[in-house]
Amino acid sequence: MAMSLAPDLIHQLRSLRRDGNGNWGPNTLGKAPHKPIMLLAVLDLYAAGHLHENLIPYDEALLEAFDCYWQLCCPGRPTNPLQPYWYLKGEGFWQHQARPGYRQALATLISAKAKVPTRSLIASQVAGAVLSQAFYAAAMNPIGREALRQLLISTYFGGELRQALAQQHQVVVDAFACATALQRQAEHDLQDLFCGNQALDSAYTEESRNLAFRRVVVGAYAHHCAFCGARIRTPSGRSAVQAAHIVPFHLCRNNDPRNGLALCPLHHWAFDQGMLSVSDSHRISVHAYARELPADPGFVALHRQAMRLPDDPRYLPATQALAWHRKEIFAKAG
Ligand SMILES: [Zn+2]
């Protein structure tokens, strides 16, 4: 069924106010691309079924989808996705809905025209963003979504980038399906870690599989490092914690979440180097070499501590993976 966008909506979407200062290149037509990127991310969350009502919370999934597009457009450039999430309110189709009891507080915050509120302030007061009826109707319909996507991409991005942005959509949407597949897989016994997962390999691109693995593993540990417990976030909500493979992916080609640990960058590196390992009873071992040196006392203090386990026991690290890591990485650290 054909679906044409309402003329008012087209007008609103073609006239997004964007910052022209700041050395934006031809990829984004010389202006800041935050708002169109936020809207592309929102459309993907509807396509993936992550969003299914007219309320868009500022959550992990939105941040992650935003970052995927941002890295394509402005690789390495710092950004705060809370900016477009907040400033889209001036465009006529995006309104923040207050949490119960916060109506007045939010109205005051909006009228104060201050800087972008912090993530914790937004989380406490804003239930989500609500779209205009015309935008929401289009976002809920596959043909409408495609029309919105094409309108945004052709209006706000240079020719070279357009195709890459159009392809990114599938990566983001597939990552949701792949994450669900990984969660289902963890409901069954783990057979052989080393036989890979050809079904997933052929169904999804590597980029989608990486996103899905990270989402499931880091989510299982609620963004804590399994070794030190660190849960560091940037003001916009990016998490320092990474999804580490216990048996490296290039050896087993297996993204089963039980072949993963959520680790901060330091402990991810130390684990990959064999300076740390984990026993079958989930106690951390610090390599004897580090313990003999006047090394960082915080690092050495991890020795024999219990690692943090995922809340859901389905995602417990596989004993066969931990045993392999002790034998092939920890015992051979060089
Ligand atoms: Zn750590």
On the 0 to 100 scale, the average pLDDT is 93
Low-confidence stretches: none
Span between N and C termini?
62 Å
Query: How would a textbook summarize the main sheet?
Result: 2 strands, antiparallel
| Biggest β-sheet: strands ordered side by side in the sheet | 1-2
Question: What is the count of structural domains?
Answer: 2
DSSP helix fraction: 40-55%
Would you report the number of β strands? 6
How are helices and strands ordered from N to C? HHHHEHHEHHHHHEHEHEEHHH
| Number of separate helices | 16
What does the radius of gyration come to? Answer: 22 Å
What spatial form do the alpha-carbon principal axes imply? elongated
Report the structural category: mainly alpha
Strand content: 5-15%
Q: Which small-molecule species are bound to the chains here? A: zinc ion
Description of the structure:
The structure is a single chain. By secondary structure, the protein is mainly alpha-helical. The protein folds into 2 domains: 7-172, no CATH class; 186-330, no CATH class. Helix content is 48%, strand content 7%. The protein contains 16 helices and 6 strands. The strands form 3 sheets. A two-stranded antiparallel sheet has the order 1-2. It has a two-stranded antiparallel ribbon with strand order 3-4. Strands 5-6 form a two-stranded antiparallel ribbon. Strand 5 (276-278) and strand 6 (284-286) form a beta hairpin. The protein is elongated. The structure holds zinc ion. Residues 225, 227-228, 230, 263-264, 266-267 line the site of zinc ion.
